[in-house]
Records
---
Amino acid sequence: MTVAPVMGQRFTFVRPSALPGFGITLGFATTYLSLIVLLPLIVLVWRASALGFDGIWQVATTPRVLAALEVSFVTSALAALLNAVFGTLVAWVLVRYDFPGRRLLDAAVDLPFALPTAVAGIALAALYAPNGWIGALFAPWGIKIAFTPAGIFIALVFIGLPFVVRTVQPVLQDFECEVEEASATLGATRMQTVFRVVLPALVPALVTGVALAFARAVGEYGSVIFIAGNIPFVSEIAPLLIVTRLEEFDYAGASAIAVVMLTISFVALLIINSVQALSRRRYEGA
Amino acid sequence: MQKASQLHDVTEMGDTTVDLGKGEPIAITAEGLAKSFPGVAAVNGIDLQVKPGELMALLGPSGSGKTTLLRLFAGLETPTAGRILFGDEDATHLPVRERRVGFMFQHYALFKHMSVAENVAYGLRVRPRRLRPSSAEIAKRAEELLELVQLPGLGRRYPAQLSGGQRQRVALARALAVEPRVLLLDEPFGALDAQVRRDLRRWLRELHDRTGHTTLFVTHDQEEALELADRVAILNRGRLEQLGHADDILDHPATPFVAGFVGDAIRLPVTVEAGWISLGRGKVPAPFQFPSGPAELFIRPSDLTLAHSTGHGTFMGKVVGTRRVGSARRAELVLEDGLPSVEVTLPLEHSVAKGEELHLNLLTMRLFQAR
């Protein structure tokens, strides 16, 4: 969407709009964002800068930190992707079918939001430990879930689920059933309609949901530390490493890891957002 | 944004020849067709046949069951009673996707995430592999169909980038791509503005004459139905009131409902006594052997003229207002206190004042016994 420059009209930074209040709302939004989000981040970067760029690089590239970063980002991405599939399925069931207990199920989706994450972590650890209900089923085959990366994965799936369900649900709700009917009159089977017509329409919402679930999972601490086992190089997540450094009063080291996490997350979210902008452009027209 | 070019390109047809491959047109028939929703009988026992190659309109007020009837033909609703025939084949329980109907939705129902060409090609792409043309053939056909609906070269756009009239034509091209046996159109011009509607209407008529599909379309616009269709079926409360050519419907309405529904008619409750109707301090002769008793008289603006004499068969009306309609003037008249006002069309140069009394003649008699 490019605006062709009009002869004789001066370039303005803000395109004129009929809606009043642009100045005041923009001012408020930037101030608010600065206070709530940017200021703490600046302090963080400032703290880390005590080490200098080389110092940060040194901290970030120690094998233990690299391993923790890998565990954090890879598991978060996998958990977000699993949620993409099953979150969509849950949203589908909640929107498309009316069954007894639908409202209960709908409310239950938000529980991972409401529960203190430590509680969730303890509950999950109890379930998936080798002597827990589910862990005991896998123990005979020598499969360990709790206290391994698999345990981290399960905790992150748990906390990420609501994001996907809640972003996909409203879009699915507004989906015109005429479009599905049109597909049927054109000879498509039900499966073809779902995969070629309905799901593609959900993609922008789904991308948002996955991005949120991913971002949330990267920052998750409370639930993971109880189920992860926290073995360095195996199941230690980057946020835990930060806390460890803080407990050793190594503030600069902690903020150095934090800055690296921040950068990776920011780049990842930026990529996701541009993917989404591309897919949205089609719908709304350039 | 493209309105100017669109307006004249819809009025003239291109010379593209497209093989629609649909074979001979077939008749579609409803036999005692009924559909009830909880608490409502939307379609209440309808017998109707659209002849092969015919363009028929389903006309009725909202809630008359016209869209439900169309959806029953398409297989988007299951009838509660009755049968649907496509040609001689019983299609009552044929699934939607096997009916091969081209259905056009009122709000287009285009696939927003697909380009125009992908929308048109969809019906071919979803075919089972052994029936599916090659990609090159599909692309070629989509382009041909876009030319047929006067949108050549727009295949790469997305629906959001098109105007309403263009979207409607994409929807039609998409419906035609599957080589439908019949075309079913739900309020095809309902969401468009008046000018585009008129152009598209003429264009659709020409397209129909060229492609020869058996076509049934729903509308609530009587002008559209009467102008465009070979025959018009008038529906009211889930029943067929009248089926006929525009002339039959306008000149010989079969039921009081039809008489009141078409042609801006005003319904007057009157009494017939020994062959005469009392009206506005005068008397008008009733049709031959019309039984005495309460009756309903339907008067359209064109039914009344000014009387030159005050003789037999004339009556009086008092002017309560005038308005300009196109190239004529209409005066609103009250014949008797308590009756709804009627309208008479006057030449422009004839000016009348409020409160003036006019002598009138009734040219056409549309009288029904009160039920």
---
Amino acid sequence: MSPTRTSTRRGRLATATGLGLAATLVVSGCTGAQAPQGAEGAEGGGQGEGTMLFAGDAGSPTFTRNFNPYNSTNRKGAFHIYEPLTVLNTVDGESTPFLASSVEQVDAQTVVFTLREDATWTDGEPFTADDVTFTFDLLREHPALDLDGVWQRLESVEADGTQVTMRFAQPDVPATDIIGGTVIVPEHLWADVEDPVSFANEEPVGTGPFALGDFGPNQYTLVKNQEYWQADAVAADELVIPASNEQLDLVNNGYDWAYAFIEDVEGTWVSANEGNTYWFPPGGTISLLPNLTQAPFDDVDFRRGLSLALDREAVADAAASGYTDAAPQSGLILPGQQELLDEEVPDEGRVAQDADAALEAFAAAGYTQEGGQLVGPDGQQATIAITTANGYTDWLRGVQEVQRQLQALGIAVTIEQPQPAAYQQAVDNGDFQLAMGGFGGTGSFYRDMNQLLNSEFAEPVGTTAASNYQRFSDPEVDELLGRYQAAVDPAEQEELAGELQQVMYDQVPVIAMYYGGLWGLFSDAKFTGWPSEEDPYATPITYDSNVLLIDTNLERAGS
Amino acid sequence: MRYFLSRLGLFALTAWAAITLNFLLPRLMPGSPADAAIARLAQNGPVDPATRAAIEAQLGVPTGGLLAQYWDYLGNVLTLDFGVSYTFFPASVASLVGSALPFTLVLVGLVTVAAFVIGTLIGVLAAWRRGSALDALPTLSGSFLAAFPYFWTALLLLFFLGYTFQLFPTSGAYSPYTTPGLNGPFLADAVAHAVLPAVTILLTSLGGWILGMRNAMIGTLGDDYVTFAEANGLRSRTVALRYAARNAILPNLTGFGLALGGVVGGSLLVERVFAYPGVGYLLFNAVTNQDFPLMQALFLMITLSVLVANFVVDTLYGILDPRTRR
């Protein structure tokens, strides 16, 4: 090696070190200068009186600009911009007309939506029946956009003036709310979109209470649509929606409306700012799904034994920090569905822990206690694997409580926690013994039960099922569901709902445990009239058209 | 020359192996992208049975056998076209990586360089003054901090400096009221947001450099040529830096090369804790959502840059240390 090369090398090394040092100095220099400004972030975005700081859309960690209302990956702000014909309140199953002014259920297979004539798109074009037929045609042509499967229920959509007549493929009363919930897009803008499936719709034009303001990867704003057909009902002038809603941000930044599960809500959210309130209504039932294709879970006595062995209150406390209650075995979500309650189901469907009754049921299934162990007909201890998704800590705490309770009766319980996608695959394919899973919460007891119990969805083990993961199959229940689907008369609906509650209670197709919550955090400081236990006109959900119910019900505080 | 050619051949071989593994590994994970999407939706509420079909149609289930997919994939790698992300559908993988990479390169890159330079200099000092307080303090505190898990340091800093004293923003890379670009307010804001993540990475990585340098240098200080240099009456600074340190820096330099290669991978845990929109966070999203296109692009970028860094270090070694060429 020659001397010159040696010196060059030394030179390079020195330069590199020098650069590194300079970079270090730049970094630390800036740090010093900027430190005092750091607290700025705490002020948040809610400056004006009519400005609402809204944690209703989570960037991960930043926003991609996509306001296509039919993408599941879209910006949830799209639901303040676009309106459907009707919006369903899933708490009590009541629908509120939006772009429809009235809805008439002609018969079990026909519904007529009369459209509002005073609605306009935010670019000034009038809203007409053509937009509605265009939207439904769009969904028929592109099944990838049809997230709610309206064309699995519809046969035809015909417009006549302001009346749109929908014919269903079969008698299907519950389809009305699903079809009415379809978000309508403007024909004059969407007709030219080449591929609506991958269309990011960066400049959304809707009929709803808000229009897109500024958009950035860290935050976007929605500004009030002054021409909105019920502009008087909209209290907020602007929604500010930041991308980052880490829990510290929620407590720090003074949000007006947020949606998040938060531990110790009284000590964190409520105590953070004056006027902070919350409402955590039940949004579905968290249950243990038994694999009905496998012994011993195919035996109703064994399932009854499991159900009787559980202290559901303790499971609810462990899993949901006491925010939600134990769930009845009937499948109802109470108190929202109180009026469907069947009086013949004992104790509102609640099953109390009863070790003796549980052992009796296990004995009927051939399992008896021997030396502290529950032993089956084969002389082996009963062993159960419960599958839950990795990272769902609330479910895990619930499962651990279940494990403790079942072990007390002598059942060996193991817990399997694959990653969420692998968990979903195991559940889809029937590759589990007992699995954690939710059901219900659609706002229609028929839909809740149909998804859970209809044998149409019970694919064979090894094939992907989209629902009814426990593979329940009973021709009588299918027949009940068919009649419920066709029932127009509320009295008949109620009677059939009662029979389904009996099925849930007697056959234990799933073991209902506790309610999954919806996590609404509100502040009364600037806006009042949030949905609550006393006035459950909507759920706190921020990621679907439910937000329209809240947008149009709030009032300025002090007004 | 043969040395460099053989290095190059090895590099090409490992690159091909990495590219192929990169294709296979995500596909060995249980669960499909649709499963991941359904699981995510089911956390929010009931999912209609019809939704699954719509999502599968939206994402586009991969067509053709594994071999055909592999062929397509090789073509995509060569043209750097990684398609559309599943998680952020319909955003392209290129645009997502493009927006995350600058934040990671600046934050993790600068901090890695700074940690190496500061750590190595402290290590030199500690070894030269071994046994004194100048040695004990950095050595002890360095090993203490290095033993801390990244995320724990991050959470502590976040809680005290971000939440309790509110000195720094708790999340994000810049606040919404600034426009990204080369303007003063944005840069100031971005630096304020980078302080906590930067300090976290610096604190936890400094110890490794200090200890590595100190221990290597103590070894060289005992060597005959150092004693000889001292005996010849050279100034102690000259002996320390130009003789002992220069020979002792080789292992640290290797580590530095690899660390630089790893910079593009970001710092997953730190970015996650501070909701920092870098490559680490993007990778986290890709993996948890079975986002094959995004995962492939990121893993490829990370493995290739580590390979390139490795190759560069190997080559440098060949120049720095003639013995390795044999």
